[in-house]
């Protein structure tokens, strides 16, 4: 194999967990004696309660007068709500501020996040903050952005913003 997958921003145990899951998936269970072989497959589902997914936009086309250059989008699964938090940069302090703001927003409305699905852009401070809130983290696999629901939330958020801005009169000053 000449190429390697990126593991930037992921804890080292992710590789071990992936390998264990792969070995579990390819292992063949032994047939119990006297048990008739069938082609029936059973599955279980788990309810995803307290699920939050996040993603950041690329740089916005304009810098707002308050220095806002990016948006951090959070998709709150249980209330089915998309929350956008403007951030000045992708530095760890700004990302941490955005996560704290969303956590406070959720708490005030009686929603306690238990599972965060994070994109590739994250920091140790954000991970530590999530750990202090007794919540779990999952990372979006490299080159598989479609697994993060916040990606679709980002498209919806941008579409809504464009429709709002389209209805603004041309002489109206834009301030952020």
Structure description:
With 176 residues, the chain is an alpha/beta fold. The chain has a domain at 51-163: Ribonuclease H-like superfamily/Ribonuclease H (Nucleotidyltransferase, domain 5, 2-Layer Sandwich), CATH 3.30.420.10. It is 33% helix and 16% strand. It has four helices and five strands; from the N terminus they run αβββαβαβα. The chain has helices spanning 13-26, 92-108, 124-132, 149-166; strands spanning 51-56, 70-76, 81-87, 115-118, 136-139. Strands 3-2-1-4-5 form a five-stranded mixed sheet, with helices on both faces. Strand 2 (70-76) and strand 3 (81-87) form a beta hairpin. The chain is elongated, with a radius of gyration of 21 Å. The N and C termini lie far apart (48 Å). The model has no long low-confidence stretch (mean pLDDT 79).
Pick out its properties.
single chain; alpha/beta; 176 residues; 4 helices; 5-stranded mixed sheet
> What is the CATH H-level superfamily of the domain at 51-163?
Ribonuclease H-like superfamily/Ribonuclease H
- Provide the gyration radius in Å: 21 Å
- Classify the beta-strand content into a percent band: 15-25%
Spatial gap, N to C terminus: 48 Å
Q: What is the mean pLDDT?
A: 79
CATH topology of the domain at 51-163: Nucleotidyltransferase, domain 5
Q: Which structural class do you get from the secondary structure elements?
A: alpha/beta
Largest sheet: 5 strands, mixed
Q: What is the CATH top level name of the domain at 51-163? A: Alpha Beta
Unreliable spans are none
């Amino acid at each position: 194999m000449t190429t390697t997958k990126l593991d930037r921003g992921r804890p080292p145990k992710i590789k071990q967990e992936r390998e264990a899951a792969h070995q579990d998936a390819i292992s063949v269970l032994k047939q119990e004696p006297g048990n008739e072989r069938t082609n029936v497959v059973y599955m279980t589902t788990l309810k995803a309660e307290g699920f939050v997914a996040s993603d950041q936009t690329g740089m916005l086309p304009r810098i707002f007068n308050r220095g806002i250059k990016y948006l951090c989008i959070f998709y709150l699964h249980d209330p089915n709500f998309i929350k956008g938090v403007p951030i000045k940069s992708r530095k760890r302090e700004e990302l941490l501020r955005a996560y704290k703001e969303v956590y406070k927003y959720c708490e005030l409305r009686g929603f306690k996040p238990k599972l965060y699905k994070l994109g590739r852009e994250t920091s140790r401070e954000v991970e530590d903050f999530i750990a202090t809130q007794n919540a779990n983290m999952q990372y979006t696999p490299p080159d598989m952005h479609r697994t993060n629901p916040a990606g679709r939330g980002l498209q919806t958020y941008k579409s809504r913003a464009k429709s709002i801005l389209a209805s603004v009169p041309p002489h109206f000053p834009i301030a952020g």
